Amino acid sequence: MSDAPATHVNPLRDPADRRLPRIPEPCALVIFGVTGDLAKKKLIPAIYDLANRGLLPASFVIVGFARRDWGDETFEEMSREAAKAHARTPWREEVWARLAGNFKFVQGAFDDDAAFDRLDATVDDLRITHGIVGNAAMYFSIPPLAFPTVLKQLKRTGMSDNRQDGGGWRRVVVEKPFGEDRASASELNELVDQVFTAPDVFRIDHYLGKETVQNIFALRFANAMFEPIWNSNYVDHVQITMAEDVGIGTRAGFYDDNGAARDVLQNHVLQLLAIAAMEQPNGFEAEEIRTEKLKVLRAIKLHDDLEATAIRGQYTDGWVQGRPVKGYLAEDNIPQTSTTETYAAVQIGIQNRRWNGVPFYLRTGKRLPKRVTEIAVVFKEAPHMPFADYDTTTLGNNQLVIRVQPDEGITVKFGSKVPGTGMELRDISMGFGYGETFTESSPEAYERLILDVLLGDKTLFPDAQEVDASWAVIDPLEEYWESTKPEPYESGTWGPAGADLMLQSSGRRWRRA
Amino acid sequence: MHLKDTTTGDIMKALDGLLHEVGGGTSGLALNLVALTTEDEREEVEKAASFAAQEHPYRLILAIPRDLEATEPRIDAEVTVGDRLGSAEAIILRLDGPAAKHLTSIVLPMLASDVPVVTWWLLDPVRYGLEHELRSFADRRITYSARAADPVASLARRAESYVPGDTDICWTRISLWRSLIASAFDGVTQSVEKIVIKADDDDPSAQLMAAWLDTRLGVSPEVVDTEVERNSEHLPAIASVAFTMVGGETMEVERKTDGTTVLRQAGLPKRRQTLQGRTLGQLLAEELRHIEPDTAYRHVLDAFKDHYASDRAAA
Fold it and tell me: Is the CB of B175 less than 8 angstroms away from the CB of A20?
């Protein structure tokens, strides 16, 4: 028996009433580093989109914190421009009018005690002036180096404490990278979890906010026809690709310190793998899903022969999308001697009964021919085919491809007879697409994730243990790569030859994504 | 593509031809939408349908009874894909004479196989003796009782003959209002003693609002008949909803004509929201998001029915 008082249930909320959207309680969103690109291109527009869909509470305030010398009005005006330029839903003045007057700006540096005292007072004042009842989410849109300083300030001012006297919750949102190896991640996790409490920490992996990624749960666990073949009896291997056509852009400093494996493999790709390979959770609660994801991540094993199964590449000059582009070493602020990889392809295994003996090939890279993210499950050949060899020469393995972006959807590839008098067989594909116009109405990843933070729903956020388990996969790779040089590949091609060899050695090949 | 005096077989051939040309197929269809309308309302229905098709790829079958006096049955059809009607595959039928009465036999072979069928009518199907026909093959039926000559009586008739899958745009259009009220109740722990709704008594939406609050809060609201000026047709004619709690505290949501909506709650500063009417297309899109029967609506409709019956008995 529990002594805790029964939580009050709003009588107007009925789980069967599917039309009432989930709307967060009155609250403030405090954004650190609000003048940065992420805030301008993603966060502020996502807030406008949420308002446009009627998903924000009546009392909602956006508090910006940055070094720039802005007032509330300037901040509001800049936010308006950002929302207008980058929002996905149509622009409507009246929607903005409802947000207007709810922008506060606090100027200061991260080591400035007085500025944080002002911020604390500002958020406290909103309790009375804007009825936010003390609820606040703090979004860290800042370089990871600044995390400790800001966290210490939040602890010092007490801003990070949940108000026990019914005075509201405090949550924190952190963006990747979560450290640069297992040790630093654990240090960072400890610090964040200690300043806030672990359930109040939301780590954003924006891939998990995508509709298609959430649809993997539906595909696997709501259907009868896929799960029976989703194992080593029928699956030959799995390929997870996250390709980008862009280069490193303006992220030279950060990128050169980290590289493709730390930047993408550790988080997005391993999260996709976890969702594609996990066992069925007991339920759809955050904790139940996390349990299964964690089991899979901890069952990952690298191949013994890293030389053949952990390939790094670095792009050289070439042509992408019909334009000449510079090689990595010629990019601004990249040292000539850099051995940072812009491409990584790794073969891993998952040590459990379901996936025993099934290789998972993971690859990610920049300056590849196009931007595409997909999970391809490649099935074994039919045990016996009653056709002549020459009839099936062009027949490949059956595939089920989950296209995460762009062109979200699912493709199934299977053999079919070519019309004619002979028995010639060829692969054809059957597709399900979310549709091009459909995307306008489905929420953008950041929209969904910000809403979930404000609602306190952690289903789509990896926790500290998952981050730790992911680094446990990456650390040995980085250690091995320490003494090697990445293989050059021409911009606009599908990566270094070593990656192709990795699959060819077992008679497989990369799917042309 | 226009087909004069045609048959369903030819219409489907034309649709297949068009789909083949654009390289599409029926594999991505989410549902069939069968809409019954008149020539006068056609444009409005088409506009709404093409908007909703962005969210729900569907095959639209628009049936327009034309010359009902004609003795010879005749079907004229227009078939379009990805054209005037957005991304929907659309068949527009104009039906003369006995053809209009046999809508089922015309529509059944045109439905995309094995995806749900939703019927939607803005006009009164009783007038054409089509209500039963439309019910026979639909998984969901959308009506708009506010458009009927006597809106509340029309909704009451729908309540009497309710079958799972029925729904009404008058319910859809109070979703935003309901959501605003529900979020105001987050964190409120006192029980409600009294509810006063200022609304147009003849608006089915206001009646549904009262019935909803009654079912959820156990307090029967008093509806004060008020003339409500609206800046959009698809808004409920509700001006304000006021609650008095057991402890005497009050909470009120009031909407002004321009859409400014104020939430006054004891102990909290006044909060403003904007509550605008949605387009028919947006309302239709919300409706199509739910293919399973709306049980919440059913409870509310039952409460409305009882209330309506006792009102009639009293009068």
Answer: yes
The CATH class, in words, for A27-175 is alpha beta
pLDDT digits (tens, 9 = 90+) for A274-318: 999 999 999 988 899 999 999 999 999 999 999 999 999 999 999
**Calpha distance A343→A244 (Å, rounded):** 10
Instruction: Assess whether A237 carries a catalytic annotation.
Output: no
**Per-residue confidence (pLDDT) for residue B27, from 0 to 100:** 53
Please answer yes or no on whether A58 and B274 come within 8 Å at the CB atom: no
- Paired tokens of A300: 């990952």
Separation CA A71–CA B163 (nearest Å): 58
Residues 6+ apart with CB under 8 A from B279: B47, B48, B51, B234
In the three-class reduction of DSSP (H, G, I as helix; E, B as strand; rest coil), residue A274 is classed as: helix
Other CB atoms closer than 10 Å to residue B152's CB: what's the count? 20
Nearest-neighbour CA in chain B from A7: distance (Å): 10
> How far is the C-alpha of B160 from the C-alpha of B154, rounded, in Å?
10
ipTM score assigned to the predicted complex = 0.82
The answer to whether residue B267 neighbours chain A at the CB level (below 8 Å) is no
Q: Rounded distance, CA B160 to CA B139, Å?
A: 18
Q: Which of A8, A130, A237, A268 is catalytic?
A: A268
Count other Cβ atoms within 10 Å, centred on residue B313: 7
Q: Classify B192 as helix, strand or coil.
A: strand
If residue A497 lies in a helix (H) or strand (E), which one and from where to where?
helix A497-504
**By CA distance, what is A53's nearest residue in B?**
B176
CATH of A209-504 among 3.40.640.10, 3.40.50.720, 3.30.360.10, 2.60.40.10: 3.30.360.10
Q: Which tokens belong to A232?
A: 């080593």
**Taking the complete model, does pTM exceed 0.90, yes or no?**
no
Q: Is the pLDDT of residue B300 over 80?
A: yes
A351: number of Cβ within 10 Å: 12
Q: Which of A276, A292, A160, A269 is nearest to A205 (CA)?
A: A269
Taking an 8 Å cut-off on Cβ atoms, the answer to whether A18 and B294 are in contact is yes
Say which range, A167-171, A355-359, B268-272, has the weakest mean pLDDT.
B268-272
Nearest to B217 among A11, A97, A437 (CB): A11
Of the CA atoms within 13 Å of residue A11, those in its CB half-sphere come to 13
The string of DSSP letters for B194-223 reads EEEEEE-TT-HHHHHHHHHHHHHHS---EE
8 Å CB contact between A309 and A302:
yes
**Contact call for A20 and B178, based on CB within 8 A:** yes
Picking from A247, A240, A310, A259, the residue whose alpha carbon sits closest to that of residue A491 is A247
Indicate if the pLDDT at residue A437 is higher than 60. no
**For B273, which of A25, A98, A133 is closest by C-beta distance?**
A98
**Does the annotation place A176 within a ligand binding site?**
yes
When pLDDT is averaged across residues A366-372 and rounded to a whole number, the result is 93
Give the start-to-end residue ranges of the domains of chain A: 27-175, 209-504
**CB burial string A111-149: b at 16+ within 10 A, e below:** eeeebbbbbbebbeebbeebbbbbbbbbbbbbebeebee
